[in-house]
Write a structure and sequence with these properties.
Rossmann fold, five-stranded parallel sheet, 11 strands, two-stranded antiparallel ribbon, alpha/beta, 14 helices, Helicase, Ruva Protein, domain 3, 2 domains
């Protein structure tokens, strides 16, 4: 397989592009690379500040950054106690954003999330009381414990970036990031998210346990006299909004675009890449939203790696998190304990990398 070269194609290394190969229609990759390298310095500062309170979990921290930079939302799945709440709170403090937490329960109402109209007896008028959704960073804790109406109210706000209360639309703040959590252990008394709603999340991240060394560090940090240190602001909200525009301008070669489409199409027609035996294990493949998500998440991954161009490694780094919740498994797959992660791993091993 031929490795990609820049600037006509993105290199899988961090080498600077060769200007002599540029054509009139190509962007100035070298200038863009330098601009991204300079502007993305705050990523390391955020990592450093979050590292003061979060031990390990580097993948989760990177996925939070990707979601924030790609203007997408994240569904986190992991057992309790893996610092999911602490992570998003630390992120909000490092960018001086407003943080709110909604604990989802079976008796929660949509108005408890988005807000409602309150009658003011003095003015004899209805006024809007905004709900916790009006924050920069919203933690939807155990989202699958709330009924469908509440889930729909939250997911509509995520998609439209606005809330309608009493016939009047209210814009949500920018930046706006929802981190929804699910507990994979307890399924009793839960309302699983429908596939169409799960598809609204840019990433689904599965969190595992820390290593022994990391857990010792966690215990040591939490037993300090002064407790965990508080992250300091290292970047402004305006910088994040500007970074989002820069992320979208990151260069993606046509070969990388084709690779993204090939990965998504492989989930729909696995027989095309010699994996016909997977056809009976997949009930439905990834939607076009997966292709869009792979593209923007790959660009955000390149940004946090301080590069102005996307490589196939960027795509592969985020492909599992972007697509694991966008394909359905059949009863046959469930009977054989075959997960979407296993199917995607096999597909990614067989789709040709440019």
């Amino acid at each position: 397989m031929d490795m990609l070269q820049t600037p006509k194609t993105a290199s899988t290394s961090s080498e600077q592009p060769d200007d002599k190969k540029q054509t009139a229609g190509d962007p100035d990759i070298q200038a863009l690379n330098e601009r991204v390298a300079e502007y993305s310095r705050f990523v390391d500062a955020i990592r450093s500040e979050m590292g003061r309170t979060i031990v390990g979990q580097t993948d989760m921290v990177d996925r939070l950054l990707i979601g924030m930079l790609a203007n997408g939302h994240i569904l986190l799945e992991g057992v309790p106690g893996l610092a999911k709440t602490l992570a998003i709170k630390s992120l909000s403090e490092s960018v001086a954003g407003e943080f709110s937490r909604v604990q989802f329960t079976p008796d929660l109402l949509p108005a408890d999330v988005v807000g409602t109209l309150i009658y003011n007896q003095q003015s004899q008028q209805f006024t809007v009381k905004k709900g916790p959704i009006f924050a920069n960073f919203v933690l939807a804790d155990e989202i699958n414990r709330a009924p469908a109406k509440v889930q729909s109210a939250l997911l509509e706000a995520m998609q439209e970036r606005q809330v309608t209360i009493g016939g009047e639309s209210h814009e949500l703040p920018r930046p706006f990031l929802v981190l929804a959590t699910q507990n994979p252990v307890e399924q009793e008394g839960t309302y699983p998210l429908p596939e169409a709603q799960v598809d609204r999340f840019l990433l689904k991240v599965v969190i595992g346990y820390p290593s022994k060394d990391e857990e010792r560090a966690i215990v040591r940090a939490n037993l300090q006299k002064d407790g965990l240190p508080k992250p300091q602001q290292v970047v402004s909200q305006q910088d994040i909004i500007a970074a989002r525009d820069l992320v979208r301008s990151i260069y993606m070669d046509e070969k990388v675009e084709r690779y993204i489409v090939d990965l998504v199409f492989a989930t729909r027609n696995p027989e095309d890449c010699g994996l016909g035996h997977l056809k009976n294990l997949i009930s439905f493949g990834a939607s076009p939203r997966a292709s869009i998500g792979l593209g923007i998440a790959s660009k955000a991954h390149a940004f946090i790696k301080h590069r102005g161009f996307v490589t196939p490694e960027d795509v592969r780094a985020v492909a599992m998190d972007v697509m694991r919740h966008r394909i359905g498994t059949t009863f046959e797959a469930e009977a054989e304990n075959i997960t979407s992660d296993q199917i995607l791993t096999e597909l990614m091993d067989h789709v040709e990398v440019p």
